[in-house]
Fold this protein.
Amino acid sequence: MTVSRLAHIPGIGVNVMGDRADAAADPEILRMENLDTDLRPPAIAVERTRAAVDEDDANSYLPFEGHQALRRAASAHVSRISGRPYDADTECVSVAGGLNGILNALLATTEPGSEVVLSDPIYAGLVNRVRLAGAVPVHVPAEPSAAGWRTDPDRLAAAVGPQTAAVLLMGPAMPTGMVLDQSHLDALADPVVANGAWVLYDAAMERIRFDGLPSVHPAAHPGLGDRVITVGSASKELRMIGWRVGWVVAPAPVLADIALVGMTNVVCQVGIAQQAVAAALDAADAGADVAAATATWQARCETVLDQLSDQPLVRPDGGWSLLIDTTRLGLSPAEASQRLFERGRVAATPMDGWGPSGANYLRLVFANEPVERLGDLRERFAAAF
């Protein structure tokens, strides 16, 4: 019998499609179902990981809050992007990947029944963690347009009320690739402060933007800085998915609570990975490394958009994925996924549970297939539909 905390938590679907594609063992299948990438992590991170295998300090539970090198690097990284100084000792803690940081922050800032504002559609893993914490997701629609996804700033602000514990922002967001701008932060500042809410900022993809503009960090806003909790990860920008290292940076009082949740939950992070992530964040060419990877992902995205220009796709502003509205093809996303897999040899994930509007969309991940393999995507879709 399912316990109550799981009653409204569906799966994310990615594992089903991933397992099916793995079982097929067909190299002709395009792997567009999961947020993986074939781009290598920074060389310095790989070298540092190999070295850490032989280091006794890397084979320890301690320190629970994360190695000092990682906390210094992560707090400096967030300080550079936000323009707000953070102290590594009191305002940064390491976590076992970004989503572990999200859950820890939710457990430290929400009460059972309190509300968390977030976008729609949005990654099911974020929605599920809101529910697992006992909070209630309040979705603000992102509207598709020829220019991409857009959320009305006033509508976002209006969703914040007396029951709001946190506003969960991500930009570019998963899976839409939507970014937020200064108008959204301006609209949020007064209601967030008036209601004592937190801004929980998922920064996993913040530099993977296709417009060439810098990140818009909520902590840089003069009206929000003291209310922002930043959760970062090495998985996307640094391509260090298997390392399972992330960080939370926030004002000291709430960071202490988040660190306590972390010690009660995962306890500590992967020892042989933390020094590698610190080295990647601190590297002199770190910005150029992310920019080069972003250029590759953007080229792949443009190839998909060109190949499927006759399909109801929505252009992303960044990130690793884009969405297709399969209802405009007269199919549910699950039906479209099935036909694509069987007839087009494309693995793609339907988005049931990814917010109220997720039931309309199929996600295509463009981060894991090179341009050369995407060149027949139009023919694959034609075979499927």
In short: Residues 286-307 form the longest helix (22 residues).
